[in-house]
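Pinned message: reference record for F-box domain-containing protein
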Amino acid sequence: MGIMLDLPHDLLVYIAEKVDLFEDFVALGGVCKAWRSAATKENFSRRPQIPWLMLAQREDGDVRGFYSLSKGLIRTVTLPEANEKRCRCLASEGWLITAESDWSMTLLHPLSWLQIKLPHISTLKDHDSVTYDACIWKAVLSSSPSSSDCTVMIIQGCLLKLAFCKLGIDNAWTTIETKLSMYFDVIHFNGNFYAVDGHGRVLLCDVEGANPTVAEVVAKLPSELHTRTIEKLYLVESSGKLLVVSRKGVCVRPVDETGDVDEDDCELTYGTTSFQVFEVDLSNDGWTEVKNLGNRALFLGHNSSFSVEASHECIKANCIYFADDCLESYYGEDDSVGGGKDMGIYNVRDGSFTSHFTGESYSRITPPMWVAPSF
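Predicted structure (tokens):
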């Protein structure tokens, strides 16, 4: 082992450049100081990476588990800054966005522990109508916080409004006043933010334009394409195209759906039954149902939605990897253990379901979510 530790730096760099998986690269840098000096961002492969599933907080508090799809193992990371007794977490661009019980907000990198302060929750319009653990339902970064022009867009808690801040510039959140319905998701796509609401309308949020607090409807999901009532919608970029994904089965419903049971006494449940995927052309409001994602997989949940190339054998092409983010179905229920049961892999081609993480991981504050590994 001593011989391995004394390898020339050039050889260590050569080894580092041959490592494909981010988790293996992190382990490489943990061997010793010499290996850590070679395991730098510049020496890492740019091959598409496999997302991790950040599990709900364990009973021992400050430890978080990250489930590896490639290894089938759980990597533990000490993250006292993400203790759900003090804060709520979301994920975007490999970073966590935390909202703490003192109403402060922070960007947190789960591996480097780097923290970047965000404007205080009290600067949000109508912030006093929600509690900290439900003040934000979604958060999306326009780019890595290391860039000079990173903007953070959030869906503001139970109010389901949009607000944004420009990192390093703004000391307060700016609310987008346009709200035609509740917002389901938001994405940064082709240089702009877009949101989708409960009626399937896609809205452009031009935060750099002359009217940054006004959102413009640029597309609407045709009712004839959607097979049932809209329950949950996501916005995802895949191969340069904007997709709108509809998730069904996530609203609370009776376990016995025959209609013979008194609604006040019946047992309730929820759980995904199917997905529909649509490609939207923002230039002409053109919609096409997508039956084949090609060599891509979508990752949906309590995180900002994203897609990856199925370049590793552990990622199934033409599939949707989903985690439980249906807060309206479990949040606030006294007998609910929280989100975490409605997770799996949906095959777009044949509509079948399989599992990814088979253990138990539940939380009403921060349920399991996908994190894209990053520096």
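Pinned by admin. Summary line: The mean pLDDT is 83.
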